[in-house]
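Following up on my earlier message about beta-D-fructofuranose. Here are the inputs again, as you asked, copied directly from the submission form:
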Amino acid sequence: MDQSYRPRYHASVTSGWANDPNGTIFYRGKAHLFYQHYPHKPQWGTMHWGHFATTDFVRWERLPITLVPDQDYEILCGCCSGSAIEKDGKLYLLYTAAQPDLQRQCLAVSEDGIQFQKDPGNPIVTADMLHPEVSRTDFRDPRMFRKGDWYYLIAGARVLNEEQAAANPNGGYLERKIDPLSVYSPSLGNVSGMDPEKAGYGNLILLKSRDLYHWQYVGKLIYEQDEFDLAYFRLNGVYECPDYFTDNGEEVLISSPQNLPTMGRRYQNIHSSLYMLGKLNFSTGRFQIRAIEEIDSGFDFYAAQTLRMPDGRVIMIAWKEMWDRNYPTQSEGWAGTYTLPRELTVEEGRLIQKPVREIAAYRKNRASCDSLSVTNQSVSLDGVSGNVVELHVTLKPGAASKAGLKLFKGGEHETLIYYDRADGVLVFDRSRSGQPFRGQEKDTVRRYCDIGQAESVELSLFLDVCSLEVFIDGGRHTMTGNVYPEPETDTGIEFFCEGGTCQFRDIEKYDIVVDP
Ligand code: FRU
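Thanks, got it. Here's what our run produced:
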């Protein structure tokens, strides 16, 4: 089958479906990216774990399927998301065995990182072992890590408050009526028709273990804090796919909340990804939040996971798609790509994301221009074109009302990234990109990133056939989205300005060339 949308330097499946990154870890000389996978069709189905490995985050080796849902406890929904940890040289995976009304955690172990054995004692953690406040229906995506002599895990869950728990001694799951034969949608399927007063609100829970096999409940991470919008604490959905790491003494908690309402320009997708800075109390589980921010202001970014490299870098990879949308590559027999891995640091109280430095080894055909002035027009530059490229530019919008870039341009198609002076936002506009988008949000074609009244905006853009990632002001913000232009012909790049004159400085473009 023709696969003309296949990205050249982003991880993607060649056939079938892929969603969340799972078990990201550096193990035996390679970075491993396991992922949620349905091999038989390019749509979500009973989950398997697929497997990529890489030595440079650009070339992805495709390895055999890691977990196949072949156990009774995995019927219907399969081996859902989870994480990896190394212990005594072995690689352990902890994943959610999911059924439509029951989610439990299971272990698999490997001596070589390729072949895994499921533990005969699976499922090793069930909500019944924890506390009546934890729902058995929505208890998933365990993220393990080690601190001192203990292993910890953070999982997404619906949790009842004390009054609710007292009224529902068996947990929230009894309230849910699901037809197990209906098509299970992991996102909306978990949400529709649920009354959070009975089923609990989205939360994260902390468990600890000495040996990875026996886990005890510590408590819930998220408590109401007056400084933050109540919507974070009254989530009618699950805080999916948690991740946790420290950088420079800062603790970072990552998660993807379902159904978080839009707040101003933030959280414009139905399901979002956010980070919280704060402090985790390992005795109570409580996470004292100091700041909350959306990770990416674009369209297609979910379920991010991190891994730590031997050189100390924290690398984040997310699913570069979104639930409840159409996926145009399904007609090519595949669906599911991942972001360019990003190096994370915490600086001045916010998360900074930079494209993984290894990408620089694949740069070819440099073209540059020190300064370009544009007045009420759209211009191209010799040598600056392509749809598998890295492009850097510093935009000085001056008094112009709109100034920015037209990408993937050809015929009627163009994808816009521009600064809008009146609103103080960077806009990602894919309304004329190519194949149309459908989704459940009001607007599936425009996203906005608040940057305020800017004299200068520094942009690093990564284009890869059907994908655009924008790093703004040294990675203080990012915007990620897929677009579906004509892959052969929509390769133009133009610099444009409306309502005045603007300057483009330090323009630098490279082709990214990864030999097959
Ligand atoms: C998030 C998610 C997880 C679940 C997995 C199923 O995208 O819904 O919560 O484990 O996908 O594929």
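One observation from looking it over: The mean pLDDT is 93. Hope that helps, and feel free to reply on this thread.
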